[in-house]
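Re: weekly structure request thread

Next one in the queue (246 aa):
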Amino acid sequence: MIRKAFQLLLLLVPLWTFAQISSSDAPSFPLYSSGPLTEYASAQPDTSDAVHVRRGARYDIADPTVPELGETSEPIELQTETHFRREPLPFDTSDAVVVGLVKTGQAYLSNDKRRIYSEFSVELRDVIKSPTGPYLIAGDLIDVQREGGRLKLPSGKVLVRGATANSMPLPGRRYLFFLRYSPDTQDYALVTGYQLAGARVYRLDERSFEDDNHQRVEHPLREEGGSEDEFLARAKSAHLSRKKGS
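Done, posted below.
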């Protein structure tokens, strides 16, 4: 059950100020990300692209009384879920499981301009599980989407949408992604993921509502434990065990 987004203006102040910190002063651990910041004009639905129109339609709101996002919208709305549990390695509910480098990220408006979603271009480095179609191999570029993101209006006002338990991936970082494939839109929905940092691995998402209790939105991501190589070995072993069991 989802509680409508409470306004975390005071809690989010450090999120904006963190962006101003120089790289030499920035913390070495990854923080929660509310997604890519995109100018309003660049986030508009592309009506000339049929696939992109279908992607935007997924986030349309059926209630016609909900206003379009704009200057009068609340700046920050982050949803929080109650009584949820997330499987650590959801192979059974994922069509694809890949190691990839995020190349770019951009926020978009839904077709009705009432919601924001983000799309990431991911270069595959390793494929642990591939959908039956299309078959994935290392070197492929795929589009990965997740609800939420940041939109900069012409006035300079920034709208933030997303979920407190779900951090966004960042361009230039490597991840293990669990994904669901959508043939209609030819892209992948992000089920969950892990940031790979060599000696350490960090969870993008919280695993339960009890964990989603941070005092500040820009909280550090939880460390998974073990090195990247150890974690990936465990994940591949878990996948093989499931395949043998089936």
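The chain has one domain: 31-74+85-160+167-205+222-245. The mean pLDDT is 89.
Next request, please.
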